[in-house]
Amino acid sequence: MYACAKFVSTPALVRAGSRALYRPLSASVLSRPELKTESGVAVIPQSPLTQVILRGFQTSAVSRDIDTAAKFIGAGAATVGVAGSGAGIGTVFGSLIIGYARNPSLKQQLFSYAILGFALSEAMGLFCLMVAFLILFAM
């Protein structure tokens, strides 16, 4: 196993692989270093296809930064609904107090409506929070 690992990680292979990995995909495909032989035919030492296969798929650092910034902006915009949920809960219980002050005999019915309003408002806030986490961690 040691001999196999030593064969796979030869310095020339590591240098060639790392050189192909840090170059952008367009530079790897478009710039083809060609060597001229004595017969005049161009020989490509490492074809662009092998560079792409060796390299796999990789985006540039700028593109990843833009994607990350877009994720954070989207998640921040999605969490604004949590503040709306808090305002809704405050409105529901404020209305409960006003309704109870006007007619104390309807205390039980008003309280059941207030709990229903609280649950619906809290559910909307949790949905907003769930969407924010989906934007951050699932995309």
Could you characterize what this model shows?
With 139 residues, the chain is mainly alpha-helical. Helix content is 76%, strand content 3%. It has 7 helices and 2 strands. It has helices spanning 2-8, 11-22, 25-30, 48-55, 61-78, 80-102, 107-137; strands at 35-36, 42-43. It has a two-stranded antiparallel ribbon with strand order 1-2. Strand 1 (35-36) and strand 2 (42-43) form a beta hairpin. The longest helix has 31 residues, at 107-137. It is rod-shaped. The protein starts with a helix and ends with a helix. The relative contact order is 0.09.
Query: Which band does the percent of strand residues land in?
Result: under 5%
Q: Give the structural class.
A: mainly alpha
Overall shape: rod-shaped
Major sheet summary line: 2 strands, antiparallel
User: How far is it from the N-terminal to the C-terminal residue, by CA?
Assistant: 38 Å
Q: What strand order characterises the main sheet?
A: 1-2
Radius of gyration: 31 Å
Number of helices: 7
What is the strand tally? Answer: 2
What's the helix-strand series? HHHEEHHHH
Give a concise summary.
This protein is mostly helical and 139 residues long.
Keyphrases for this structure?
single chain, two-stranded antiparallel sheet
List the SSEs and their pairings:
Elements: H1 2-8, H2 11-22, H3 25-30, E1 35-36, E2 42-43, H4 48-55, H5 61-78, H6 80-102, H7 107-137
Antiparallel strand pairs: 1-2
Helix pairs in contact: 5-7, 6-7
